[in-house]
DNA sequence: TTGAAAGCGATACCAT
DNA sequence: ATGGTATCGCTTTCAA
């Protein structure tokens, strides 16, 4: 790699001090440096195609202008979309985004956080993995700015931006009840994460308000790590039991993707045999024969807010925490009839 | 942010020099430092929870251990999947990935490259945008290591990893011919990018070998920036003309996504009314009523090879260039019958 | 208006 | 075996 041009090179060529060059190049016109000298330096800098070394700047300033984004899996459309929004928003503040996927595993998440802290990121945007509470607390203790997205921990006070998961599934379940479904199944992840708990709670609350009590047998929980192995059995339990459900609410779009495949394989028709509502849209559903009713999360707002809050927190470390909860909307289609 | 622990802090607490601390912490046991002192330093370092400042290391070593990934759009599943593979592979070498989306625009691509160069990335993995040839040449001239993926420029000698686009569409078109289709349409992007040209060439070659000459009216080109505005008209021109095609080859999965929606809207059935082959798989096709024949790109190989080659190039700047072309496979399903 | 020099944190050469 | 010190590129204080 050809050696890079530094302030020193410019200073030598111009026959001035490094300091003067620095002044001109960073402060612009009102640098205190004389106009002719100023011009000369600018000219040489551009001739030499000078590019400031961001690393050196960072070492000196203590700011890297980079943020670490940790999600479950960057290849998951939900997170890929958020990543794009975060990228664009971060660029507005001149921040760079470095990313990592935790695969919902605390150990990977922990490694990533350490890795990124060593690289001196100025802050984090994190969709925290199961059992990562301690890591988040550690971040807090070290006063490293961060914003949680998608999920958060109600027991600790942090910045977060998420949707109102409880209301979202509450409304969705109500919709299914209104459509005349009495037995409604829920397929969720087997997780203590707050967003998942809230989705389950919203479902239960709606059932209760309808005067029933939520049945354990209608709530199926699937392990993150063995989705494909468990989903068929859980779907079967819901729709093939003695008292089968007439509707299913899927707590994420990945669950729905595989769940619907099973429903199709069983030759059951949506919505005639089973009504369906899905949490989150996905391109995959574009071609489903029955247009799906789904809960639409405010991705753009989540992403932009997260960046705004993080950057603000980085600039003003004593700012009070921001906890943003944004409503999702229920997009009604045929599948919930 | 609580001030970070530095070598100096450890040195002070241990009553030794910074140099000794550095030796112990970087060289391990055979550091030349006495065993007792060694232990003492290690103990204090871990007590203080010392984390080396990667920025300082980078400044000193001239290596940032980060690579810039520039794709068209990180939220596009194709690139999101590649990003994940690159992330995992980079981690094996202790590299961090920072990413940016060019939206297929040369201007954005150029900004990103500059931005990342300033941040001292050690190298790039780039899916080059239209008209970005000059930027790539500039990278070359500056001796900055990079590997192109997905597309490359045949007129310049660079590292690249791509699939054999020509063979892929050649075989796909042949398949459609074998299935008895005489008029075959191609929907591609209106782009000079090599991968797109090769996909078009492969199609033409297959038609020629079948003893026909490719008709201009059967080849439809769509602008990147106005896909949704143009696709319906192009599909219509293919299937509703006086001499309609009986099969369509889509040059990317995004084109197919919208093209198939149009075909459905026209009440045409796949494959009875129109046979279809798609370049690349996508979750979106999982639910298409007719299982689609598609060209499966070797994503994993492309991603891992790109990282391997880049890291090798960073370590050995004089190494000769690697140009890797990996076959895609045609996954045959109902839609091409 | 200009510049010398300290310092950011870590490494490595060269003394002792 | 241990440590002083120059160095990476840049910013900023202080002095001239």
TrEMBL record, chains A, B:
Coiled-coil zones: none
Stored InterPro entries: HTH_LacI (IPR000843), Lambda_DNA-bd_dom_sf (IPR010982), Peripla_BP/Lac1_sug-bd_dom (IPR001761), Peripla_BP_I (IPR028082)
SUPFAM superfamilies in the record: lambda repressor-like DNA-binding domains (SSF47413), Periplasmic binding protein-like I (SSF53822)
Entry-linked Pfam families: LacI, Peripla_BP_1
This protein's UniProt keywords: DNA-binding, Repressor, Transcription, Transcription regulation
HTH lacI-type domain span: 5-61
Protein name as it appears in the record: Substrate-binding domain-containing protein
Organism, as annotated: Aquimarina addita
């Amino acid at each position: 790699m050809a050696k890079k041009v530094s302030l020193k090179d410019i200073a030598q060529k111009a026959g001035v001090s490094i300091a003067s060059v620095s002044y001109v190049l960073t402060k612009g016109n009102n640098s205190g440096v004389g106009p002719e000298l100023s011009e000369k330096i600018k000219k040489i800098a551009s001739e030499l195609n000078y590019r400031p070394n961001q690393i050196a700047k960072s070492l000196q300033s203590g700011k890297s202008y980079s943020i670490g984004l940790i999600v479950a899996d960057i290849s998951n459309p939900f997170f890929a979309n958020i990543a794009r929004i975060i990228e664009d928003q971060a660029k507005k503040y001149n921040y760079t985004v470095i990313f990592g996927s935790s695969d919902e595993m605390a150990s990977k998440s922990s490694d990533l956080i350490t890795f990124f802290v060593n690289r001196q990121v100025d802050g984090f945007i994190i969709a925290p993995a199961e059992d990562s509470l301690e890591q988040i607390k550690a971040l807090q203790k070290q006063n490293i700015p961060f914003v949680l997205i998608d999920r958060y921990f109600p027991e600790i006070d942090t910045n977060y931006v998420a949707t109102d998961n409880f209301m979202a599934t509450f409304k969705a379940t109500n919709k299914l009840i209104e459509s005349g479904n009495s037995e409604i199944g829920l397929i969720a992840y087997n997780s203590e994460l707050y967003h998942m708990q809230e989705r389950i709670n919203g479902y239960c609350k709606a059932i209760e308000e309808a005067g029933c009590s939520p049945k354990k047998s209608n709530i199926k929980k699937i392990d993150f790590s063995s989705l494909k192995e468990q989903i068929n059995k859980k779907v079967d339990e819901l729709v093939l039991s003695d008292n089968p459900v007439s509707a299913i609410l899927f707590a994420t779009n990945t669950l729905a993707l595989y769940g619907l495949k099973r429903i199709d394989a069983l030759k059951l028709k949506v919505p005639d045999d089973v009504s369906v509502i899905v949490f989150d849209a996905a391109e995959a559903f574009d071609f489903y024969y029955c247009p799906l009713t789904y809960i639409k999360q405010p991705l753009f707002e989540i992403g932009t807010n997260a960046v705004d809050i993080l950057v603000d927190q980085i600039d003003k470390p004593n700012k009070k925490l921001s906890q943003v909860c944004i409503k999702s909307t229920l997009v009604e289609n045929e599948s919930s009839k």
